[in-house]
Amino acid sequence: MIYISTVSRRGSSHADCNEDSFYYKQSDNVITGGIFDGCSSGKDSYFASKLFANVFRKTIDEYAGGITMTKDLKLITHAFFKNLKKTANYIGLIEEETLSTAILFLYETETGNLKVKFFGDGVAYVNNDELKIYKIDENNQPDYVAYSLNNIIETENFRKYWDLKKSVNITTKDFSISSDGIFSYKKSNGNEDFPVETFLAQDNFLYKNPASLKRKLNMIKNKGYDHYDDITIIRIINE
Amino acid sequence: MDNLNLHDFNIDFGNFDPGEISSDETINAVLIVDVSPSVAAYVKDMNTAFKDFLEEMQKSHVAEKLMVSIIEFNEKTIVRSGFQPVSSIDPAAILFRPCGSGTALYDAVLAGITNALNYRTNLENSGVNCNTLIFIITDGEDNSSGNQAAKVRKVLDDTLKGEKNAFSFESILFGVGNDADFEKAQKDMGIRHLAKIGNSGKEIRKMIGFISASISKSSGTNVQVVF
Fold it and tell me: Which of A191, B43, B118, B174 is most buried when burial is the number of CB atoms within 10 A of its CB?
């Protein structure tokens, strides 16, 4: 049985909009998904991340029934970038309007094989016997996909770009993908140090409830912690 | 099920399990309804309006997060339903029938508010933010309660001292007809708002309309009472 919980919430430093987005799709044997974090110094960064999520959704839909293994993530990503380029051209977007990170994953539900690919800051938590944390931190100056988009449509250039980017390949029954907002928690009151990351990525509180992560964020807030950056998490437990 | 046996009343509310709530926020509406014999004059209109209200709420944008508890009272307090998702309530099954011989207004309100506060605490401790609305519908003054109005007032005053609760907890007394000093009851119990209405079908429907509008507007950060 697969249990999926998601949350995406605006951080306290953003007055108006949550600049994160996400999308996932569960098919018979795989779950494909992505988290997208718009660049705050870009233009309409909430739009950039939502654009990425919607184009990613379209890309996955075009593969309906065809995604079976983690190696398909490379093909999907190339198709995703091509669709991004096409969409951006069609509606006349400038580069500043397309600045978003992308953390993409593909999970085989029968084998437990997980592949994650990072195009920008973010983190993957893998909860096997212990919690392993795979963090990508480009000092808040990620090499945005938009900077290379013209180039990487071509297959050979895409292959080189793909090989440069960090990835995680592992087998697991419990993992979370998160934007880097998870590191922006600060204590606003109270003395107790609260282990935010392990509570979100390892603790099994109401894990069968799809609202588990949303409720956990409320509980963390009630303990006097707040996140100044937007936070988006997808957690998948395969029982 | 999360059973809350209130010691004073030996009442089992049978509230919905907080662990099963698949939302991170709820609107908890308590309806405390007088069914003493005098309500016979308007109970038919009230039943019709109430059925329509439930059906409307089940189709509304708040349906996923609305929890409803229904308490009726005469000289006794009777729990028709603890907090349950509105989608699980059969509108046709909730019929108020005048019976009994007295009006234990303070006991019923105290039981309803206490259960609402306990449930709210359970939910908030497990990451569910709540807006709580208490609606009391009566046509008479208290003549049967074992508890004083001051006890209700103390519970409400203590609750509203918390800054968080001040904007997420509301109480309204609907006084039906002209036979009672509803202002006194409101003040003695510390109920925040009072609305006096007639017992015609039109007035009863208007009252139920206030209730549904208040609930609909209470999705989000603050509770809003709509008159």
Answer: B174
How many domains, chain B? Answer: 1
Per residue in B179-217, pLDDT tens? Answer: 788 999 999 999 999 999 998 999 999 999 999 999 998
Expressed as residue numbers, the domain containing B199 is 25-216
**Does A222 contact B124 at a Cβ distance shorter than 8 Å?**
yes
**CB contacts < 8 A (A, B):** 31
> Would the CB atoms of B127 and A218 count as touching at under 8 Å?
yes
Q: Tell which of A218, A220, A225, A233 to mutate to test the B interface (max B CBs under 10 Å).
A: A218
- CB burial of residue B149 (10 Å; 0-12, 13-18, 19+): buried
Decide if B90 is inside a domain.
yes
Q: What is the CATH number of the domain that holds A60?
A: 3.60.40.10
B5 domain residue, yes or no: no
The answer as to whether B87 is a domain residue is: yes
Q: What is the pLDDT of residues A75-108, one digit of tens each?
A: 999 999 999 999 999 999 999 999 999 999 999 9
Q: What is the predicted pLDDT for the residue at A87? A: 97
Tell me whether strands A113-119 and A122-127 are parallel, antiparallel or unpaired.
unpaired
Q: What is the ipTM of this complex?
A: 0.86
Residue B19 resides in a domain? no
